[in-house]
Each structure stands twice: as structure tokens, then as C-alpha cells.
Design goal:
single chain, five-stranded mixed beta sheet
């Protein structure tokens, strides 16, 4: 992401998360959390993280033993970046880091 000056404010930024839940885990709940971290691991979101808990129930007519796809989106409004650098959205499933979506914020030249 390129900005003209710092601090820089991004009006709206969204990420999509898709996870596959094994059939054996149906009937339980799954906790998805997202943090925004700087290169040093510092958290940039007020409150630390955004959390969504989903109940993983089988639907009538679903094939037995079929995994379930779960799709969620997370939208972040008015994110402020104080300086140029590397950042990442850290996605955790049931409190275990699953993935990092890395990006950089730089000034235009």
C-alpha cells in the first residue's frame, strides 16, 4: 500500500477468511480471531483483536463425513499507520495461529 505521508489513515480494509472444518468437529464451536501487527509484533487494533465464534452444526441433507466450509469477512475502518513498514493480519483458529497476511505500507516516490 502506498500513501502520500504519515501518519496515514486507510478508510476501509477488508480480508476474507475461509476455513475447512472436519466433519468430526461438527457440533462444536470454532473461534476465529484476527489481529493486525506491525513488524515487531505490536498489536495495532483497539481491543487487541477481532473475534468471531461460529457454531459448526451439520445441516439437514449434508453428506455424512463431508467437511464444512466456513467463510467470514472482517472489515476494518479508519486504520491508522504511524510509519512506513511491514504489517500483517494474523489469523488464529481456536487460539492457534493459522496464517499471516503480510503487506507493506510505503510512501509514494
Amino acid at each position: 500500500m502506498y500513501v502520500t505521508a504519515f501518519p496515514a489513515r486507510h478508510p476501509s480494509l477488508a480480508i476474507g477468511v475461509r476455513i475447512r472444518v472436519p466433519w468430526s468437529a461438527t457440533g462444536t464451536s470454532t473461534r476465529i480471531s484476527v489481529e493486525l501487527q506491525d513488524a515487531d509484533g505490536g498489536n495495532l487494533l483497539p481491543g487487541g483483536q477481532v473475534v468471531h465464534t461460529a457454531n459448526m452444526n451439520r445441516r439437514t441433507g449434508e453428506m455424512d463425513r463431508a467437511d464444512i466450509g466456513l467463510v467470514r469477512s472482517f472489515t476494518f475502518n479508519n486504520l491508522q499507520f504511524e510509519q512506513a513498514g511491514d504489517y500483517s493480519f494474523v489469523i488464529s483458529i481456536d487460539d492457534e495461529v493459522s496464517n499471516r497476511l503480510r503487506f507493506s505500507v510505503r510512501t509514494k516516490k
